[in-house]
Every structure is written in C-alpha cells, then in structure tokens.
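Protein 1 of 2
SEQ + STRUCT:
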Amino acid sequence: MSLACPGNLEDAFWQRAAELGTLSEQERLEAIELGWSTSWLSALRQHLHLRPAELEPLMALSEATMARRVRQEGLLDLVPSERLDRLIEVIGLANAVFEDPASTEAWLKAPHPLLHRMPPLQHCRTAIGATQVRRLLLAMEQGAPV
C-alpha cells in the first residue's frame, strides 16, 4: 500500500485506513519520510465530517496551509505526515472495533470519560494521547468493559 499515492480515497477510505494496520513499522516510517499525500486530508475531512477548524489542531497546520497544500495536490512534510499516520492508524483500529463507519465516527467524536471527557479523535493530538486511545480500543476489542 502506498501512502504517498493513495489513489481514489473517496471510494476506499475505510478500507485504506484498515490496511495501515498491516504495514510494518519500517514501511510506515518510509511512507512518513516520503510524505503522505494531501488527498488524505480531504478524505479525512469528508469521511469523518470534520470542519477545517476541527482538523487544524490534529494536524498542527493552519486552515490556510491545509487548503493550499490540498490545492497543490502534493505531499505533506515529515511532521504532518507523522500526525496523519497516527490519526489514520487510530481510525483504522476504531473501525475494526466498531465495524461500521457511522459508529466509528460517532465514537471518535464523542467525549469519553476515560480520556478526561475529551473525544478520542481530539485526544490523538499527541503521540501519548493516541497511545491511550489505542490502548482503550484494544481493551474494547478484547471485551473489556470500558
């Protein structure tokens, strides 16, 4: 799977997000270093129904910068690529747990008591926060009452 050249994400976003879980860490690192395609930003906004203001803190990019990069249809730099990798990994894991895009989106956006009442998606602004969300999802997958 090429993260730098994602093809038609409009039709395959959820499948492509799930495929991230099958990549080795080395493959993910290489994709991050090459740069994720900006089309992932558009797909993420579309499929999770995010406003630019909701995506901005997750990517640490201003709305104007995101819009410009999407228009240019290029590749993201290292830091935004790593942040996007983190988000897509959590989204893929959440979709594996909930098995339905609408349920996945609802869970990712709803405040969660074990995440200091922060929505899981917003908790992924940092690597530590994303690790906590992954841990929570893995516990849910194992049937833990969370």
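Protein 2 of 2
SEQ + STRUCT:
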Amino acid sequence: MAGAPRRQRAVGRVRLGVNAIAGKSRVSDVAEAGSLRVRMPRVDGPAVEGVLVNTAGGVACGDQFTIEVKAEAGAHAVVATPAAEKIYRSDGETARIDVAITVETGARVDWLPQETLLYDAARLARRFTVDLAPDANFLAFEALAFGRVARGEEMRTGHLEDHWQVTRGGGLIYADAVRLSGPLGELLRRPTVAAGNRAWATLLYVAPDAEARLDEARALMESARSECGASAWNGLLAARWLAPDIETLRRDAVAFLNAFRGAPLPRVWAL
C-alpha cells in the first residue's frame, strides 16, 4: 500500500528440541529471541509439552516470526498455544510466520496451536514445512477464522498466503497452498472457496497406521455441525472442517482431536 508509514516491527524466534532417554522425552534444546517464548508446563505422560507464547500480544503488519521444532529419535513433543493468535489489520506490510518441524526415526510431534484469527484488512504469509523420517509420526491441526463473527465484524479485505509442505524420507508426500487476496469477504462467499463460511481447519496425520484409520476418522465426524470430510492415501490422512464461525468449528474439532488422539488436548486449550 503506497504511503504506508514504516514502523519498528516485532521479530521473534523459538527453537525447541526434544530427545528420549530411557523411554521418556526430555528437552534437549531451547532458544528464544525477540517476542517469542516457549514454556514447558509439567504434564503427566511420556511427551514434552511446549507452549508457544507471543509476548507482542498478536501479529501486526511486517512482523516476522520463526518457529523450529525437532523431535530426535524416539522422542515425543506436543506443541500448543495458550490462546488464538490474532493477526491485526495492516496498512501495508505483510506479516510472516515460518514453521519448520523435524521428526526423526521413531519420534512423534503433535502440532496443536489454537486458531489463528485474521482481523479485517490483515495481511499474513505463513509457511509450514515438515521433514519426517520414514517411520515418524506426525499430527498437525491448524484452524483459521476470518473476522470476529461474534462482534459482527465483516471481513471486507485482506491477504492470506498459507503454504504446507511435508517430506518423508526426503521425498515430498504432501503440498498445499492457499492464496486469497483483495476482497476477502467476496471471495469467502464464493461456493468454490468457502460458501460464506468464516472458519476452516485442516488436520494432517502422517503415520504407519494413517490409512487404516480413515473409517475411524469419518465416524468421528458424523455428529459434527461443521461441513467436514477426510481422505487417506500414501501413508497420510487429511481432514478438513468448514463452519460459519470458529465456535462451531472449535467444538467439532476438540471432540474429534480428543477421540482421535486418545488423549486430551493440552490444558491451555481449556483456559
């Protein structure tokens, strides 16, 4: 946007590494810079739970954040956020969030942030890359909400780029890219985009048993109020939800995730 003022922007970086000793996962590496932090609450069970905290209080135009997570051989990491990540309106620059996850042999990562909320006129470019060992386990859930429906906010304009890329054993197994720019309200009303819905979510599960769990996933979706569906191929399972508001989607997704994972979501989801 021509004429937009230049401001000092937030820059944050977090790196979390987890290894396994005697069958129990432990933190092996932590690095923090800028406005990103990671906290490890005490939890029962063999996994390390990391909670990502953005001390800037949200993401604004031109902010840049980088998150790296690595689970070494046999380790299990669960990563969450304490609340929705708010992407505020921009008068010009695009905020950027880059996530890189590495899961080594026999390890597992559950990526479970709460929803990302785009305000009217928000601008966000997000890249999500995952590198898996052939026998690694990986589960990711990401939800997006367009505007504050409960406050009657209309999503008129904005910009979203969302790129996912997953490799297993060095080969690409999953790639997904979304780019919506300009009159977002109008675009979301199109039947081929969101049919007027204002919230959507994607779940990706990559594991040796992923394809065998397709019927289970579809059965768990039968009582959902959201529009949803699941498919499985090539050792992965993908599911999507589409709802008029984030509250509806969140209720459906929480019920699904608790059952599908066989474990409750991180406690920060209930705060």
